[in-house]
Amino acid sequence: MFIFRGHTVLRAPGIPCVFLCGMNEGVFPSRRTRTLPAMEEERRLAFVALTRAEGRLYLTGAEGRALDGSPRYPSRFVLDIDPALLEYARPPHEGLVADAREYIAASERSLPESQTVFDVGDRVEHPVLGPGTVTEVDTGKGVHIVKFDRVATTRAISFRARLKRL
């Protein structure tokens, strides 16, 4: 558990506490965050949550390994806080923090500015489904809705799919 003890804690004892649970990479920020603007929105949400604490701020994160066997890293938002302002119930291992920083740096380099490649009305071609027209863009799900010429119904195609502009 991480306990933030900045100047607001010292100035305002007894005023409401804020608890932020799940401060791990993949939870907050979510693993579904796929673009730089989306990551900045997550960062803004974290900032808003952090600054609501007038008395104490408790940040918790899970230790150990995820279901897929990967290590559970502390959230980049926790690592952004000056370590002198954190009080740990049990400090993380330096190796874990170093690995987390490497993982975060790699993930930030791989985040594109935007995932929406095509706009509504654009003609595209899918390697299997052939040519079609984008009828909708669902940024929440990360898909283009495409009406393909040879398919009766529209299909949701991931932003990551290899669509080619016609």
Short description:
The chain has 166 residues and is an alpha+beta fold. It has helices at residues 7-11, 36-51, 76-79, 94-110; strands at residues 2-4, 18-20, 57-59, 86-88, 123-126, 130-138, 143-148, 155-158, 164-165.
Molecular structure report:
The protein has about 170 residues and is α+β, with helices and mostly antiparallel strands. The protein has 2 domains: about 1-110, Double Stranded RNA Binding Domain, CATH 3.30.160; about 125-165. About 25% of the residues lie in helices and about 20% in strands. The protein has 4 helices and 9 strands; from the N terminus they run E-H-E-H-E-H-E-H-E-E-E-E-E. It has helices spanning about 5-10, 35-50, 75-80, 95-110, and strands at about 1-5, 20, 55-60, 85-90, 125, 130-140, 145-150, 155-160, 165. It is elongated and about 60 Å long. The protein starts with a strand and ends with a strand. Residues about 5-10 have low confidence and may be disordered.
Largest sheet, spatial ordering of strands? 8-7-6-5-9
Written as H for each helix and E for each strand, in order along the chain, the element string is EHEHEHEHEEEEE
* Total discrete domains: 2
Taking the sheet with the most strands, its summary is: 5 strands, antiparallel
Shape: elongated
Going by helix content, strand content and strand pairing, the class is alpha+beta
Number of beta-strand segments: 9
Chain-averaged pLDDT: 84
Q: What percent strand?
A: 15-25%
The CATH architecture of the largest domain would be 2-Layer Sandwich
Amino-to-carboxy terminus distance: 52 Å
